[in-house]
Structures are given as structure tokens and as C-alpha cells.
Fold each of these.
Amino acid sequence: MKLMPRTFQMVLLFFIGLQTVNSQVMQVFEKFEDLEKKVFKNNDTTYVINFWATWCKPCVKELPYFESFNTSIGDQKIKVILISLDFKNQIKSHLEPFIKKNKYSSEVILLTDNKYNTWLDKVDAEWSGSIPATLLLSGEKKLFAEREFESEEDLSKFVHSFIHSL
């Protein structure tokens, strides 16, 4: 008799876990070095990494372009990663509701390392720290843009120009 309730609990937890996976699961990194190990990979995939925050109006304006681009790339070896620089104490009140409301399918990561001067130049030596900012990585090559994209076409041209230059 005790086996049945335990089995039911396990099945229920399995389905709850699937829902969590199908909705946005977000990793939180408190140190840039940990994020760097996870995201900055040297392989045959091109990474489109956007630094943004919910409090940044130009960032919020261009995020749909990244999401649209992400859904349009199909099986190409391109991965879109949205790195939020939102405040850690606003995850539940701002970031999670924003992601849920907009139904983002791109990978979203929160970086809470506020020692910006120790890691900005690891992204790009010329980065002032303003957002939105986008980093393209493919193997050892990278291209950085500290600007807002005006459309999905603008973003797509930027990414594909980089890929064709490899």
C-alpha cells in the first residue's frame, strides 16, 4: 500500500520537472569566471551572446530580434544566449516574470557579478560596460558590438557577416 503513494509522488515530480524544463530554466552565475567556463566554448558552434537587463529600454526593444533570429536558425550550428545583468534581488519580481511573459525559448543566464572592472575587458577590451552589447564567438574568433540592433534583419546580417568571415 505504501508503494502506490510513493510511485504516484515520483510520477508527479517527473511531470512537474518536465514543465520546469519546458518553461524557461535559468542558470545564475555569481562570478564571471564560472559563466566564462560554461558559455565561452571553443568548438564549431557560433555563439550569439547578448548582454542585457530588464531595466534597459534599448535592450528590451531588441530582445525580440534575438528571439526571432533564434527560431529562424533551424539546425545551423548557432546558439543564442541572453545574459541578463539584472540585480540578483529582482530575479523573482522582475526577471522571471519578464521571461515568462515573453515566452523566450533562447537560453537565458543571469550574471550577478557586480565587479565589472574585473571582467568587462575579458569580453572585449574596448567595452565601456554599456548595454545592450553583443558578443559573437566561434572557436578562437570573436566580434563585439556595443550597440542596439534595429531589426532582426540587422542582427542576422551582423551574425552571418561574422560567420562568412571565418
Amino acid sequence: MSPHRRPLLSLLALLALLVLAVGVSACGYESNSKEVDEGQSVELGELKYNVTFSRYLNQNDNEDEAYLVGQKEAPKGETYFGVFFEVQNESDEPQPLPSTLKITDADEQEYEVLESESIFALPFNGTVEAEEQIPRLDTAAQLGPIEGSVAIFLLPEEASENRPLTLHIPGEGDEEGAEVTLDL
């Protein structure tokens, strides 16, 4: 090997080691961003929200029928949309849940969450007890097919064409809220 190649190989080895070190240090990286994608958790106050799944709901489907208890038949041109959550409270104090949620589409149309009688419903204006979660362990929502509490929206058919859909979770008091880009 020529003496001129040795410094070049050493430099390349050092560069490869540096790239590897940067890659490994990024493992376990956690962002404090208030704008996340579905499936990523976001912290608001002492609560950690995770939208585990979102999808259109079919009133004629046995599973979806349980999520839509108490809802009227969707008007022509509209359909129900479910956003499924896990909410964690890792603090020593009970923490309040928001009173409402909304979805916006790319055209800035707003859709408010609907009240729900379903046993799977996210309990708006409720609380998450200290070191507990919503849905609570061993409940129908936690043991159900999606393993989450649902928030239900009524969306016009054109909303799916105006993506992305963004879920807005209000912060408590003066705290900035969070936005979750839904995966449709």
C-alpha cells in the first residue's frame, strides 16, 4: 500500500466512525414537539396523548356499531370518523381531560367532536387518575379490538379529498395545544 493512501484510509475510517456515533446517539430520541403524526405521543401538561388509530366508521358493521351507540344515521354525503386514543397520566395527581376536540382539513374546514353514549368513548371533561391511563385497564375499550377510547366526528365525504386531516387537542389554561396529523 502506498504511503499516500494510509492517511486517506484513516480519514475515511474516522468519518465512518463519526457517522455511526451520530446515528447511535439519535436512538431513543424523544421530541417535545406539539405537532406529531398519528402513532406518535404528544405531551400536554402531565398527560401523554397517543392517537393509536383513526378510520371511517360504518354503521352497518358489528364492531363499529358499538362505537356509534346513540348516533343517528349519518346524513347523505357524510360519514362517521373515529379517532382512537390512549392517554397516560404518569403524575401523582389526577389530571383533567379536554372538553372538546376538533379536526381541520387542508381547506381549514373545522369539524367538532360529537357527544357519545358508547362505552368506548373518550370521557370528555373527565379525569385521568394519578398514574393511570384512558382507557382504564380491563375495560371494554382497553380490551376491545383497537384497545383505545374513541372520539367520533361526522365528516363530509369531501373531507377525505382535503387531506391532511389534523386533530387539534387543546392545552389546559394558557398551555399551547397539540396537533396530530391523521393517517388516512
